Amino acid sequence: xxxxxxxxxxxxxxxxxxxxxxxxxxxxxxxxxxxxxxxxxxxxxxxxxxxxxxxxxxxxxxxxxxxxxxxxxxxxxxxxxxxxxxxxxxxxxxxxxxxxxxxxxxxxxxxxxxxxxxxxxxxxxxxxxxxxxxxxxxxxxxxxxxxxx
Length: 149
Description:
Radius of gyration: 39 Å
Organism: Formicarius rufipectus
Protein name: TEX9 protein
Distance between the termini: 92 Å
Shape: rod-shaped
Keywords: Coiled coil
Order of helices and strands: HEEHH
């Protein structure tokens, strides 16, 4: 994601061109394909749908125009995917920030809960002691009333 974040998208002839795309270069790829063509051509792939079967009947110029158009569409698709990746990366960062804030809030609330529980226990002990004193004083009052009568 850090490499995607550092990509530069530029426009060339109305098509999006990505530079610094994790070591990928269209110029290098084009050069490699041209070298393979000069050395004896590329192996035929029946699954290769870059140029449809009608392409065999096209002239070289028409094939080049077709491939350039296909390249532009592919570059635009790639630019859209990169944009979506950046958007998702930003969303992930926002969610990570929210998660961190929530965890900090949770920790703070846990601390508050533990303090309140300890205070509650302390007040229970004080209440029990006060009840015992109250009972003792009530018994003393009853005994003193009997003495007075």
